Structure formats: structure tokens, C-alpha cells
């Protein structure tokens, strides 16, 4: 189990590092957020299968639903910013512009 836990932790940290270092395009940010959510989902399903408590079996499904909502919102924002600004570079986006 310790090898699996080590692999989950390293993949989670790699996704967070990717999120912190590759912030040039909005699409890269969304992919790194999805990698974080996928790692959390895998960790949670492993935890549920190890503990086998009936009260927490719904948690991975809820996390998967939240991840799908986050992905659809992120893609809608990507399409909206691509249409208004013409690109998805994060340097061109500003909160002061309408």
C-alpha cells in the first residue's frame, strides 16, 4: 500500500507543480486542475475500497460530479475568452477590462 500511496502523492504534487509553473495558457491550467481532481478521485476510491464503510461510498461519486461541473465551467470560460480576446494567453486577460 505504501507504493500506491507514494505514487498518488507524487502524481498529485506533479499536477500541482504543473499548475504553478505552466500558467501561460488557460487550457494548460484546466488540464492541470483535471489532473489534480483525477488524482484525488483515485485516492478517494482507494481509501473507500480499503475502509469499506458504507457511509463514505458516495464520496468518490460526488467528487466525480464536482469535477465534471468544474470541467464544463472551465471549458465554457475558455470558449468565452477565446471569442472575446482571440487567444487563451493568460497575459492578455485583465480583470480591469470589460
Write the layout of secondary structure elements.
Blueprint: H1 2-21, H2 26-51, H3 59-85
Helix pairs in contact: 1-2, 2-3
Q: Can you characterise this structure?
A:
There is one protein chain. The chain has 98 residues and is an all-alpha fold. The protein has a single domain, classed as Helix Hairpins (Orthogonal Bundle), CATH 1.10.287. Helices cover 74% and strands 0% of the residues. It is built from 3 helices and no strands. α1 packs antiparallel against α2 and α2 (26-51) packs antiparallel against α3 (59-85). The model has no long low-confidence stretch (mean pLDDT 88).
Which short descriptors sum up this protein?
98 residues; mainly alpha; Helix Hairpins; 3 helices; respiratory chain; oxidoreductase activity, acting on NAD(P)H
Shape: elongated
CATH class: Mainly Alpha
What number is the mean pLDDT?
88
Domain module tally = 1
Q: Could you state the order of secondary-structure elements as H and E?
A: HHH
Major pleated sheet:
none
- What is the CATH architecture annotation? Orthogonal Bundle
Membrane topology: Multi-pass membrane protein
Transmembrane segments: 28-51, 58-80
GO molecular function, one term: oxidoreductase activity, acting on NAD(P)H
InterPro entries: NADH_UbQ_OxRdtase_chain4L/K, NUOK/Mnh_C1-like
Amino acid at each position: 500500500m505504501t507504493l500506491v500511496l507514494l505514487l498518488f502523492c507524487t502524481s498529485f504534487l506533479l499536477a500541482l507543480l504543473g499548475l504553478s509553473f505552466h500558467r501561460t495558457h488557460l487550457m494548460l491550467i484546466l488540464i492541470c486542475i483535471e489532473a489534480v481532481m483525477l488524482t484525488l478521485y483515485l485516492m478517494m476510491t482507494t481509501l473507500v475500497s480499503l475502509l469499506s464503510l458504507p457511509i463514505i461510498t458516495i464520496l468518490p461519486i460526488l467528487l466525480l460530479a464536482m469535477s465534471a461541473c468544474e470541467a464544463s465551467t472551465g471549458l465554457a470560460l475558455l470558449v468565452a475568452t477565446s471569442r472575446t480576446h482571440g487567444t487563451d494567453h493568460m497575459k492578455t486577460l485583465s480583470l480591469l477590462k470589460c
